Amino acid sequence: MNSSFLKTARASVALLFFIPILLFFCDFADVMPDQLSHLLKIQVVPAMLAGSIGIIAFLFLLTILFGRIYCSVICPLGVMQDIINRFSRRGQKKNKKKRWFQYAKPKNYLRYGILGICAILFAFGIITPLLLLDPYSNFGRIATNLFRPLVMWGNNLINWGAVKAGNFNFYHVSVYTITTLSLIIAGIALLTTGILSFFRGRLFCNTICPVGSLLGLLSRFSMFRIRMDESRCNHCGACAKACKSECIDSQQIRIDTSRCVTCYNCLSRCKQQAIGYEFGWKKKIQKRIEIDSTIQADLSVKSGTGFSRRTFLTTGTALVATLPVIPAWADSRPKDSTKLTPITPPGSLSLDHFKEKCTACHLCVTHCPQQILHPAGFTFGLGYAFKPHMVYKNAYCNFECTICSQVCPNNAIVHNLTIEKKKTTQVGIAQFEKNLCIVHTEGTDCGACSEHCPTQAVKMMPYKDGLRLPEVTADLCVGCGGCEYICPVRPVRAINVLANETHQSSRKPEEEEIKHFEVDDFGF
Prior knowledge:
Layout: H1 3-26, H2 44-50, H3 53-66, H4 69-74, H5 76-88, H6 108-123, H7 128-133, H8 135-164, H9 180-200, H10 203-207, H11 210-219, E1 224-228, H12 238-242, E2 248-249, E3 254-255, E4 275-279, H13 293-302, H14 309-322, H15 325-331, H16 351-357, H17 363-367, E5 373-375, E6 388-390, H18 403-407, H19 419-422, E7 425-432, H20 438-441, H21 448-451, E8 458-462, E9 468-472, H22 482-486, E10 495-505
Antiparallel strand pairs: 1-4, 2-3, 5-6, 7-10, 8-9
């Protein structure tokens, strides 16, 4: 098959995945269809956490058939790295040499060590290391915290220019940072992957990414793969220079298929037609030397070269040693004592379920119309790092909204949450503190919390001197935060929603009898 066609087809399909996913994350005006969330459900880690056996089997079968096509077509972080690398190789001046890739030995102890650590912790229900390295989740955090604000600034710039020209078809939007820590984490992820891809192509995918390492194990046995013909190869190295995975050793005439992401860049570079994408299971008549790079790396370690066990153990020990520092630093910051447990979104079932399933991709954060879902950082410990929780500082949870459950790709927020079911899903219970209420402290009437309660859980009861204080009926409260949001007391509000670690079902409010009045004159 024509090499240019393969390369163009691969790049086109990759953009068909990447552009809708990017727009879906950056959609601040809610114009993109929710059906685009299905593209996110075929990502490896979300599918694993959602228990989507069919999707996982499809992705594994795709890898066994065609190699790591997932990494170069479906994975948004992988496509983003290709775009960055593409720009890094454009615009060179004539008096400067163009930068090329070169073959590099695989760092197998590091890549498979990280995969093993993530797999072992995952088996024990600890997914924090996995979500920190998961390519999809990292892309989600980058798109949410960096790209989305840039799109909003671009919108405001267009709006400013349009208003100057007398066109009022655009509108200004408020650009905000959800949390400073989430912005920093997204910046670190973009800086790390950006620098590695700019100078070393797919080094992140073939060294740090656990998904790349997992699929690399399968791609070693792929049915179709890039192969080299000894009889035609003249060791010119053109294919190795074009290989962004740095997995082609043109001198030894071998390809490390575990690192090859099937980008087809090497095919068009070879002028001898010595390299091609072909059926890899058939026996060759000509003698071929195909030593797997994994074995070669082991030999190099034994001979004293390459990436040693000592280096891996030193790196791993340093990583493990730094893990307790992060939550310790987080715990040293001041906290609101009324919010010691995160309030998880309706449909997340329980704190344990949400911690186990959520990868902190922040898709629900971007699509929440009330913007009450905020990344937690390390506020609730390392196990809840960067996962969203409900904050009622500037808004409350809409009584008839289930958007977060519709867009969640990994079933951390279950998809079968109907509006009727949500109306009786109790994520927390409002707690009233009499000593903070302005009715008690200032002797003035209020009742704002009762007026904003959609379930009649907060009612005003007689207090003294004609004043009334709120009283919470716990089994009617759903924890929507309407009362907390509207409470005028600062900094700690007089009524706060405290989380249910396991979501409960509330009682439906009884319909009050409608009273009919005869209106005289103008009804005053």
